[in-house]
Amino acid sequence: MRIAVVTDSTAYLTDEQCEKYSIYRLPLSIAMGNETIEETKMDSTSFFEKVKTMDGLPTSSQPAIGQASLLFSELSKKYDAVISIHLSSELSGTFNTIASLSKIYEGLAIYPYDSGISCSAQGYFVLEAARMAREDASVEEIFQKFEKMQQTLRAYFVVDDLNHLVRGGRLSNGSAIIGSLLKIKPILHFEDKKITVFEKIRTKKKALKRIEQLLSEDVEKGYPIVATIIHANVEQEAIEWMKTLKKHHPAIRYELSYFGPVIGTHLGEGALGLTWMEDQTKI
């Protein structure tokens, strides 16, 4: 069976990765004033600079249904099936849109997958699906691997301003008020596909130390780990954090990624995150 792998732009895979593994992307878009831009056509640095000049916050939107339909029509000419991997259905309607489209194509079986997360953590599933599809794995085998990957997947992040999440409807007002009053830098994570507060920490420095501790706990379990540092236009800070992590855990395979415009809209500039899981390339 010829299987195509599709994802959306919030996996923040590079053009090189998509080309190497024949991964197809559906871009989400950002509305900035009267202008709507596909996020694949705007780098994150330019995005955050433009946000500073705006009176309000940008808004994000899922891929157009016509664009998705066109892609699947093209894929039906070369493939028998599609595994379509998307950001959490609690953050966007993208997964539900693809799920609705999956019922109308004859001759092309579409299998949508709700990663329950976003960014590089979502990208882990995309890359593994692409690798397995190249090795002629079945859809069932790939989804079984996804279940195993979810068991070791972790993702924690810290934001500079909780109000972005609140105004975007991604975090409760109560959490934001507490954070503002007490100058707390909460560690956030995904729980049941939603962004929630994992722990309330006093400073960003202490929050990052706590995330390092959580990583150490998984390192002690003995399996190989891949870890990705993700940043919102603070690349140098992310690089310095990676150097610190490498000193403590040199055996980990580290990667550097970023929060692009869609996710950056909700997290704000200055956010830092760390995601990791069992390294599939070393199993």
Automatic annotation (TrEMBL):
<comment type="function">
    <text>May bind long-chain fatty acids, such as palmitate, and may play a role in lipid transport or fatty acid metabolism.</text>
</comment>
<protein>
    <submittedName>
        <fullName>DegV family EDD domain-containing protein</fullName>
    </submittedName>
</protein>
<keyword id="KW-0446">Lipid-binding</keyword>
<dbReference type="InterPro" id="IPR003797">
    <property type="entry name" value="DegV"/>
</dbReference>
<dbReference type="Pfam" id="PF02645">
    <property type="entry name" value="DegV"/>
</dbReference>
<dbReference type="InterPro" id="IPR050270">
    <property type="entry name" value="DegV_domain_contain"/>
</dbReference>
<dbReference type="InterPro" id="IPR043168">
    <property type="entry name" value="DegV_C"/>
</dbReference>
